[in-house]
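Subject: 2-polyprenyl-6-methoxyphenol hydroxylase-like FAD-dependent oxidoreductase

B.,
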Amino acid sequence: MKALITGCGIGGPATAMALREAGIEAEIFEAYGATAEGVGSFLNVASNGLSALRVLDTHREVMAAGIPTPRMVMTSGSGKHLGEVANGLALDDGTVSHTILRSDLYRIVRDQATARGIKIRYGKRLVSLDDTGDQVVAHFADGTQATGDILISAEGVHSRTRTLLDPKAPAPRYSGLYSFGGITTFPGLTGEPGTYHMIFGKKAFFGYAVADSGEIWWFANLPREEGDVPADWRPLLVEAFRHDGNRTADLLRESPIGDGFPVYDLPSIPTWHKGRVVLTGDAAHATSPSAGQGASQAIEDAIVLARCLRDAPDHGAAFAAFENERRERAERVVSYSRTISNSKAAGPVGRVFRDLMMPLFLKKAASQESLSWLYRHHVSL
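Prediction pasted inline below.
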């Protein structure tokens, strides 16, 4: 069996490596003409994601490139302490969630894939598919094509393959937030290394962690109408945090600020697979970054799909088994993350209610016991 994988973000190389472990040949086709070196800010690889990376023998490199972040402290914009929760649950050997630059995570999984003999073709933007019954043919914008036994979409939230499988599939859903992030030095914000400080401000949300080096890894979520993009984001961000009881506005005055990106997730879609084509990761169940699970869910998908393809009698049975095992969990993560995103975009009345109820929510819905379904989940080949 030969698999064509569209998309070379995090999920594409992880899927190719998992397939190789299962004895299945894979080739990756990336829409962009160059690698994603230096692209993106940073992300969370939760303990369940590191457990999945361990199956691919890639976890050590990821942990070495990131910073351990096992804990979150929540405060309001006025400085009121709202509660503390674990950022993931430690694995049996003590491994905890790590924060890593997206470009570093991408580089590691891509380099691991190529070192294992997996080919990556760049500048291959998918435009159409032909499922002949015996094979699948992918047609790319540059006029070339590729033929395989199956095609796996790891293209992300704006997947072309999802539309080709089902033109009536629900579109990505805007969360109401634009996201920003950066790494800087700023003495006005301090904290214990390894702790995320999550600040539910009066008009926007701010989070940061302090590395051992003293650098501040920060991100901000700004409620905004989709498509309403100013020439310069800095004044809007500074104004959004100016009346909070901390120095986030001062940091934003001094820190480099790139373009914000709109945050999307994906409502439940009816079709995960059809014929010889299957969707994985954000193409099937995109989640907002609020739960810190996007990369982890894509890596879990990769391993489960490879196992199903290895063990099932044919690709149809494998795809059905994959969806049966993954859909409920993935959609639960999407729903959980959207609940968190909605709390970040609360209006004046909702903000008061949120700050009153947050301690109770954290105690009951975000305790270690209540989130064991999320972080204690282990996949295997």
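The mean pLDDT is 93.

T.
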